[in-house]
Specification:
Layout (H helix, E strand, L loop, with lengths): L1 H18 E8 L5 E7 L4 E7 L5 E7 L12 E8 L3 E9 L12 E9 L6 E10 L5 E10 L4 E8 L8 E7 L5 E3 L5
Antiparallel strand pairs: 1-2, 2-3, 3-4, 5-6, 6-7, 7-8, 9-10, 10-11, 11-12
Length: about 190
């Protein structure tokens, strides 16, 4: 009986290890931590987001077809944090490989705005920042955050949906955590 119990326990532990891939953790300005991971063969990233009142909550976010299923983030960066209210993050992944060595070492990056003030975190904005597969490239500096005005400026050399043309976009983050385009920035 005891052997069956231990064997069952080992099997469950092994399945858990196979199901969840590598994770990335990020220390927030508030001192709390955010973690990103994927489940094997899934096309979503799962963020473990700290709650203002303590504890954590999970948020499933979408990626696109340029990231292989089950691909864990290769990096996770904090752009800005309004404690107990909002997080602006960039999560990056390896590009799916293409023929003739196209995008073998490339990355796909997503900008996300997460509202964390409610019962559960909510993704209020998502855009593709950089992509080897979609030919998207940020300028330098690509992202600029102004805490005084709660405005995020994005500068692309090759913007999404612009056919390789540059774009500057300014987003003002509202009290509800939802970004709104600043007039004349898109």
């Amino acid at each position: 009986m005891r052997i069956k119990f231990w064997a069952s326990g080992l099997l469950v532990a092994a399945l858990c290890a196979v199901t969840a891939w590598a994770q990335q953790s990020l220390r927030l300005a508030s001192g709390k931590s955010l973690t990103a991971y994927v489940v094997q063969n899934k096309e979503q990233t799962i963020f473990t987001v700290p709650k203002p009142s303590g504890g954590t909550s999970r948020l499933h976010v979408e990626r696109d077809a340029t990231v292989a299923a089950g691909q864990a983030p290769v990096s996770l960066k904090l752009v800005a944090e309004i404690p107990d209210s909002m997080l602006i993050l960039v999560d990056s992944y390896q590009s799916i490989p293409g023929g003739m060595s196209y995008c073998q070492a490339g990355e796909e990056s997503f900008l996300r705005v997460l509202s964390i003030s409610g019962k559960r975190p909510v993704e209020t904005y998502r855009t593709k920042l950089e992509s080897c597969r979609d030919n998207l490239e940020l300028a330098s500096p690509g992202l600029e955050w102004s805490p005084e005005t709660k405005t995020l400026d994005i500068h692309w050399l090759s913007a999404p949906g612009k056919g390789g043309k540059p774009e500057d976009r300014a987003l003002k983050i509202g009290e509800d955590g939802k970004p709104r385009a600043v007039a004349g920035s898109e």
